[in-house]
Specification:
Layout (H helix, E strand, L loop, with lengths): L2 E5 L6 H12 L4 E5 L6 H5 L3 E3 L5 H10 L2 E6 L5 H6 L1 H22 L2 E3 L2 E2 L10 E3 L10 H20 L3 E2 L1 E3 L1 E3 L12 H10 L4 E3 L7 E5 H13 L11 E2 L3 E3 L1 H9 L7 E3 L3 H8 L4 E2 L2 H7 L7 H15 L4
C-alpha cells in the first residue's frame, strides 16, 4: 500500500493519531513528520520519523516521493492563543503550509485530511446548535486561517480533484501531550493540578460553555472520515463534530467527585476569554452523524475518570 505521512506528528493530535494509524495500517506504512518539538521514544522507535517544516515545499515534495505517500494527515499548525500572539507567523504556517501540502497532493495524487476548528465560527454565528452551514466571521487569526483552509481545500477538490477531507474539531482533551497554546487548554491543565494536589486558577470565566471532545474520539473521527464512502460526503472539508459541552465549573465538579479536596479559582485572561466568547457553545453535528456515521464514545463523566487514571499512571501517582 502507499504510505501515510502525518505532519505535526509530535503535537496534540498527531502524537495520538500517529500510533493509531500505525496500529491500523502497519507501522512501516506511516511516516511521522515533526518540526521543533522533540518526539517521544515510541514515536521514534515504532516507525519512520522525519524532521519537516511544512513551509519548505521542496522538502515536503522530496519526502512524499521518497516514501511513496498516498495520504497526508496535515496537522501542523499554530493554535488559537499562540496565533493571536504571532498572527503573521500563524498565517505563514497555517496557510502557507497547507498550500504546500495541497500542491504536493495535487501533483502526486494524495488524499489529504486537514482539520478545521470550532474557531472557524465567530460571534455572529448562532451559539447554540451552530448549524453545519452558518455564517463564519471569526475575529481571530486562527479562525481566519481555518475558514480560509476550509475554502482552499474545497477549491482543490472541485478544481483539481484532490481528495480533501476535514472536520471542525471542538476543544480537545488529551493525556498524551502538554497543552500547546489553545484556548481550551484549561480543560487539560486542570487535571494536572488536581493530581498534583495543587489549586487551579482558571483563565476562563464561570459559565463559559464550549464544545469539547476526548482525544480518542477525535482520532477515531479522523480515521473514520478518511475511510468513509466519498459519495456520501457533502461537506467533505468542514464537518461539525462534537461530544460534549461544558463550562469550567462543570469539569471542576466532575473532578471533585474523584478528588474532593481539589480547589479551583478564577483569574480571567482577557485575550483567551474573548476568543472563547466568540465561539459556539455547541455545534450541530447531525450532518457528520448521517453522512459517515459519526458517534462519540466519551461523555464528561467517562472522560474525567479515564483522564485521571491515565495521568495518575503517567505522573507515577498511582
Amino acid at each position: 500500500m502507499k504510505k501515510i505521512i502525518v505532519t505535526g506528528a509530535t503535537g496534540q493530535i498527531g502524537s495520538v493519531l500517529t500510533p493509531a494509524l500505525r496500529q491500523r495500517y502497519g507501522a512501516e506504512n506511516v511516516v511521522a513528520a515533526g518540526h521543533k518539538r522533540k518526539p517521544g521514544g515510541t514515536l521514534l522507535t515504532s516507525g519512520a520519523y522525519i524532521t519537516l517544516d511544512v513551509r519548505d515545499r521542496g522538502a515536503l515534495d522530496t519526502y512524499v516521493r521518497e516514501y511513496n505517500v498516498g495520504t497526508i494527515y496535515h496537522l501542523a499548525a499554530l493554535l488559537s492563543a499562540s496565533a493571536e500572539k504571532q498572527p503573521q507567523l500563524a498565517w505563514e504556517i497555517n496557510m502557507g503550509g497547507l498550500t504546500n501540502v495541497l500542491e504536493v497532493a495535487r501533483i502526486y495524487g494524495c488524499a489529504v485530511f486537514h482539520p478545521s476548528s470550532i474557531g472557524a465560527f465567530g460571534p455572529t454565528a448562532p451559539r447554540i446548535n451552530t448549524p453545519q452551514e452558518s455564517i463564519q466571521r471569526p475575529q481571530t487569526m486562527y479562525g481566519i486561517t481555518k475558514v480560509s483552509a476550509e475554502l482552499l481545500c474545497d477549491y482543490y477538490f472541485e478544481r483539481f480533484g484532490v481528495d480533501t477531507r476535514g472536520v471542525r474539531y471542538p476543544g480537545l482533551i488529551s493525556h498524551e501531550t502538554s497543552p500547546g497554546g489553545g484556548t481550551t487548554d484549561y480543560a487539560v491543565d486542570i487535571f494536572y493540578a488536581a493530581l498534583r494536589q495543587e489549586s487551579y486558577t482558571c483563565y476562563l470565566a464561570p459559565g463559559t460553555c464550549l464544545d469539547m471532545m476526548y482525544m480518542p474520539d477525535a482520532v477515531r473521527a479522523a480515521v473514520d472520515l478518511m475511510e468513509a464512502d466519498p459519495k456520501r460526503l457533502r461537506f467533505r472539508n468542514a464537518y461539525n463534530i462534537t461530544a460534549m459541552s461544558f463550562a469550567p465549573e462543570e469539569i471542576y465538579s466532575a473532578i471533585k467527585k474523584h478528588i474532593p479536596d481539589f480547589i479551583m479559582n478564577y483569574e480571567v485572561d482577557a485575550v483567551r476569554q474573548a476568543v472563547a466568547d466568540s465561539w459556539p457553545d455547541r455545534m450541530d453535528d447531525s450532518a457528520a452523524r448521517s453522512q459517515w456515521g459519526w458517534q462519540p464514545e466519551y461523555d464528561l463523566a467517562s472522560l474525567t475518570a479515564d483522564m485521571l487514571a491515565r495521568l495518575s499512571a503517567k505522573l507515577s501517582l498511582s
